[in-house]
Amino acid sequence: MKKINFSSEAIIYDDVSELSKEDQEIIKEANIAKGKSYAPYSQFNVGAAILLENGVIIHGSNQESAAYPSGMCAERVAVWKAGSEYPNVKILKLAIVASSKTTVVDKPVGPCGACRQTLLDYEVNQKAPFEVIFMGEVGKIIKTESLVSLLPFSFDSSYL
Ligand code: THU
């Protein structure tokens, strides 16, 4: 028997102005994406923006359905759009922003478990980590250097 420690690193910022210009730009794009969110049922609007290695920026936003489980998170909309429009182009960064029509989102909104698993495939396939930046409407901003740091002991294609 052996006990191991594992750790993930994240940088916590107090204000967007502390991030690089490139990071601020991708956050701005995520906010534009959030404006295209369709979330009449949860009233919770999420925007995601992906910066690709070729300079293209992809927007995704959550899209809901009256048949609730049929909706989709902003992150998966964005990464599937990137994967289908630009296969084999590396993802450099993903920014996620969220706000609610019923409350003030004052905590950084990280990708849900299903999104982390979905995003991981793209990171593993491109053999290079990509940064994930996430935030709420107010409060701290979190940046991680890779997707795998958000999903330790994850399942990937190496098992298949
Ligand atoms: N949602 C996202 O788009 N991304 C997340 O990381 C968390 C949740 C969406 C799904 C649903 O439309 C709404 O937020 C409330 O869960």
UniProtKB/TrEMBL annotation:
<dbReference type="InterPro" id="IPR050202">
    <property type="entry name" value="Cyt/Deoxycyt_deaminase"/>
</dbReference>
<keyword id="KW-0378">Hydrolase</keyword>
<dbReference type="InterPro" id="IPR002125">
    <property type="entry name" value="CMP_dCMP_dom"/>
</dbReference>
<keyword id="KW-0862">Zinc</keyword>
<dbReference type="GO" id="GO:0072527">
    <property type="term" value="P:pyrimidine-containing compound metabolic process"/>
</dbReference>
<dbReference type="GO" id="GO:0055086">
    <property type="term" value="P:nucleobase-containing small molecule metabolic process"/>
</dbReference>
<dbReference type="GO" id="GO:0005829">
    <property type="term" value="C:cytosol"/>
</dbReference>
<dbReference type="Pfam" id="PF00383">
    <property type="entry name" value="dCMP_cyt_deam_1"/>
</dbReference>
<dbReference type="GO" id="GO:0008270">
    <property type="term" value="F:zinc ion binding"/>
</dbReference>
<dbReference type="InterPro" id="IPR016193">
    <property type="entry name" value="Cytidine_deaminase-like"/>
</dbReference>
<dbReference type="GO" id="GO:0004126">
    <property type="term" value="F:cytidine deaminase activity"/>
</dbReference>
<protein>
    <submittedName>
        <fullName>Cytidine deaminase</fullName>
        <ecNumber>3.5.4.5</ecNumber>
    </submittedName>
</protein>
<keyword id="KW-0479">Metal-binding</keyword>
<feature type="domain" description="CMP/dCMP-type deaminase">
    <location>
        <begin position="21"/>
        <end position="158"/>
    </location>
</feature>
<dbReference type="GO" id="GO:0042802">
    <property type="term" value="F:identical protein binding"/>
</dbReference>
<comment type="similarity">
    <text>Belongs to the cytidine and deoxycytidylate deaminase family.</text>
</comment>
<dbReference type="InterPro" id="IPR016192">
    <property type="entry name" value="APOBEC/CMP_deaminase_Zn-bd"/>
</dbReference>
